[in-house]
Amino acid sequence: MAAVRSGSHKLAMDYRLTHVETLGNALVANLQGLNVLLVNETYFALPSVAVARAVVEVAANSSWLLSAEANTDERAARAYAAMFRAFDKGIANTLDKDAERFKELKNELIGYLKTQRVHVVPRTRGQIVFDDISTVRVGRTEAKTGFQYTQRIDAEIPSLAGLYAGLSGMAHGEQVHAVSTWDRPDTSARLIGLTVQRAVEAWSKSLHAWVGVTPGPFVNPAHEARLVNSIPPDVAQALREAGARASEA
Questions:
Q1: Helix (H, G, I), strand (E, B) or coil at 71
Q2: DSSP 8-state code for residue 42
Q3: Are 160 and 199 in contact (CB under 8 A)?
Q4: What is the pTM of this model?
């Protein structure tokens, strides 16, 4: 916090505060939507899977942004990288008027960071230099704007690598995974429950660590063990293999 009090990377700190609030609201909204789907008289498996994946992605992004293992410079680099990612996606995916505003904000940020000795690196391919940003370097650390969710989840919440890969197969309509959600709806519901529990726990731990607070027990270990043991062995093995493939990708 000394760096924040001295004004160093205050912009990054302000962004983290705002972004953490946004991610927290998104997490709660997704959980509320998932509850509606799960308690409905008719169990909608595939929509529930899509929402569960969103919960995992939000939790992984929060863990990455707030990582207690990262030093001040690295957390600042991550915050700036997230800002540039948002600007570049806004430029690419919004109407002309909004895109121009995103460009203005992006250029203002680049100008400001130059005064803070933060190096902003555009994406390149050979000799071609593109407008979007690829990397932000603060001190001796750097953060990339681009990422794959499978890699981020493997790095931030490794216990979910296999579960996320399995749910992704269901959500994307891969035949083997999709059929399993219809043939074994009870199993898909258990997978969703375990996935969401671990994701929210990871989110909670990252938030507590960021503010320097030791959290209490998040869930009764016996309850989690009962849920894990209720998943058929062949499904559990398939998830472990999917997690291993995701880690190697």
A1: coil
A2: S
A3: yes
A4: 0.84
